[in-house]
What we know:
Elements: H1 8-20, E1 25-30, H2 37-47, E2 52-57, H3 74-82, E3 89-92, H4 99-105, E4 109-112, H5 126-136, E5 140-143, H6 151-158, H7 164-176, H8 179-188, E6 193-198, E7 200-213, E8 220-233, H9 234-242, E9 247-255, H10 261-267, E10 272-279, E11 285-292, E12 298-304, H11 312-326, E13 331-336, H12 344-351, E14 356-361, E15 381-385, H13 386-392, H14 400-411, E16 415-419, E17 425-429, E18 435-437, H15 450-463, H16 468-482, H17 494-504
Parallel strand pairs: 1-2, 1-4, 2-3, 4-5, 6-9, 6-13, 7-11, 9-10, 13-14, 14-15, 15-16
Antiparallel strand pairs: 7-8, 11-12, 16-17, 17-18
Amino acid sequence: MKGKIKNLEELAHIIANLKSTGKKIVHCHGVFDLLHIGHIKHFEEARTFGDVLIVSITPDEFVNKGPGRPAFTTSLRLESLASLESVDYVFANKWPTAEDTIKIIKPDIYCKGPDYKDHLDDITGKINDEEAAVNFVGGKIVYTDDITFSSSSLLNKFGDLYSLEQESFIQDLLAKNSFESIKIKLEKIEKLKVLIIGETIIDQYIFCEALGKSGKEPVLVLRDLETQNYLGGALAIARHLSDFCNNVSLLSFLGEDNEYKSFIEEDIEDNIHLNFLNKSNAPTIVKRRFVDSIDRKKILGVYSINDDALNKEEEAKFLESFDKLSKEHDLVIVSDYGHGIITPKIADYISKTDKFISLNAQVNAANIGTHSIRKYHDINCLIINANELWHEMRERDGDLEKLALKLKKIIKADYVTVTKGKDGAFLLYDKKVPIDCPGFAVKVVDKIGSGDALLALLSLCLYSEIDDDLSLFIASLAAAQSVESIGNSKPVNKVTLLKTISHFLK
């Protein structure tokens, strides 16, 4: 059995020798998380199309089936497949998709299950790319006809992937929604025109090696190894929306010398329209985080910032730009990081607009004790972290639902959503019982930006009048997706989100 498990380089050599003797190569690819009778019959039929059956699997780091998946590791999945008599060789793919592997293996037959016959059923669209790769190497794609089962469905039914809270929440959603209906609702969001307002922030991650204590002073000494810049703040929110909306605009400030403007313009998605003003006597905000290169833990943060309020001229320019842009958009998302660009006058002006306003006003190291949400009023949707709520209401550990209801009345918000980290989030609307959504994050790499992802998707869903519980579920999955990568390096991906929803609801 162990002799069947190879790496791609070994297999390329083996396949070349097999083909030289006239052998016909059949290739199957997938996750194959829970090996079941449907897989076994699929491989047995695939084997009849040629002389040698090779199976490749998607390795753990590229599996996008939602929290807790894959249920079985790469090595265990390889071993289970290698135990099948119909399979000659197995290996773990080196990429998220199969196209490059197909071009190396050059199979005579690339075999997929019957559920892939209609390419429109594949929400990733990758089956078309795979077929193109097979045609490129002179092969042929064929489909088996045997019965099919879903690993996700079996794991959802018999596995122990979810907590009781998660299972109950998902079952309630299943009773009211199908995957197709959810997909249609998300597709309608594409037409929305969204305006993002907030600080432009460059998140700079400096990966370091800890050398130890200084020889003469009680100071930790680090060696910098690599520096990576990511688009943070309001830029991150815009990027989270770029895969869901065709038209996203940003109104924000750069420093007086336009630092990082070229980097932003090169890195931002094409459907995000940038509207920058300049703040005098200020740099473009950079938040540096020194990170241990081994465990990816943050050691120190250093901010380059001038958080003085805008002067009267800058304030007037901002309001003039907001007036023009808001008329061209359906909804406005405000993320106030408390660094001086949204003055009380601007906050009041935004609050009085007739547009749907969604708000997140964050407490951080630079503004704690001075930043307040109460400069806003008549907001459609407020998203706030539990710690920020306690801080805003000057309560150390008060009841979150009561505090949220009190704040809702103070600022006259339609919706208030309180995020609770790993414990999920709850949403208040009118006098209904709060909707409590459990957390779904499993693989937490970096919590930076999770609130921005939730803000982005929840705002779109609530504006589009998607049911409150489904809106909170979609937004929570977006937040769970965002914490799986370092910093704001990757925006929320629509296909990945849809795949996650699909596997949850099977």
